[in-house]
Design goal:
Layout: E1 2-4, E2 9-12, H1 20-23, H2 28-44, H3 46-61, E3 65-67, H4 73-81, E4 91-95, E5 104-108, H5 134-141, E6 146-151, E7 159-161, E8 170-174, E9 183-188, H6 198-215, H7 220-228, E10 230-231, E11 234-239, H8 242-249
Parallel strand pairs: 2-7
Antiparallel strand pairs: 1-2, 3-9, 4-5, 6-11, 8-9, 10-11
Helix pairs in contact: 2-3, 6-7
Length: about 250
């Protein structure tokens, strides 16, 4: 993983532990079958169509996914130059009533095996768990007099994907989820839920951003909180005063 210090962007590649060219077989028809099933479910439940399209449009608007025709030329050239068939990730609509920000989400199934081969998750390393211990986090939180809490919105999507690995994060889509519309090839251009190493890579991204700001002598208090008081995408920290909290949040 590499940090662009000018744009404060971390670029990631997939950590393969097995050769994807040899172990991932063509699987577009599997993704087409799952898409057809989703379209049938949506036909029976029109509200699901609206929720799913809205969820997908959020990814499009924020630049987290893009149609093949919308990718920059240099990205398309990198995709074409990289070896192997790549991978299509089947997706499904999942509801989480306990979430206020994303009650409906497209869940990508990178554990779906390719015919006669492995799945994307099956050829990837998960990575070392570097999350702080919740017990330690809560003990530190109880020491201060004022609290700082935050949620990193769409945390996984904050890390960009290297163009030469984009072919492993493709999926199929139909505009407005209308069966008669043409099937489009979409690319996930960031880390995404459902791909095995995404959680650990997100943690490393946060650590790299914190280390960069620390090396520049900027936002030191916030960088320390990002490194030590963050659990996945949740931040919980306490300080001796509200003023100290404002310094952390700045």
């Amino acid at each position: 993983m590499e940090l662009d210090p000018v744009k404060n962007i971390v670029w990631a590649k997939l950590p393969f532990v097995e050769d994807p060219v040899a172990n991932l077989k063509p699987n577009r028809f599997v993704a087409e079958k799952v898409l057809k099933t989703q379209l049938e479910l949506i036909r029976k439940n029109p509200s699901m169509r609206e929720d799913t399209v809205k969820s997908h449009q959020k990814l499009v608007d924020r630049g987290h996914v893009a149609a093949e025709a919308e990718l920059p030329r240099e990205h398309l050239e990198a995709i074409k130059a990289s070896p192997g068939e790549g991978y299509f990730i089947p997706w499904r609509t999942v509801y989480n009533e306990g979430s206020l920000s994303t009650p409906c989400r497209m869940v990508f199934d990178a554990s779906s095996k390719t015919p006669g081969g492995n799945s994307l998750n099956g050829v990837l390393a998960k990575g070392q768990n570097t999350l702080c211990k919740l017990q330690h986090l809560l003990v530190r939180f109880r020491r201060g007099q004022a609290a700082v809490t935050a949620d990193i919105s769409m945390a996984y999507n904050g890390t960009k994907f290297r163009p030469d690995h984009l072919k492993y994060q493709r999926y199929l889509w139909k505009d407005d989820l209308i069966p008669e519309n043409p099937t489009k090839v979409m690319y996930i251009t960031t880390l995404i839920y459902g791909v095995k190493p995404s959680g650990q890579q997100t943690q490393v991204s946060l650590e790299k951003l914190a280390a960069h700001h620390r090396s520049q002598g900027k936002h030191l208090e916030g960088a320390a909180v990002l490194e030590n008081d963050t659990y996945v995408d949740d931040i919980i920290n306490s300080q001796d005063s509200q003023q100290d909290c404002m310094v952390v949040a700045d």
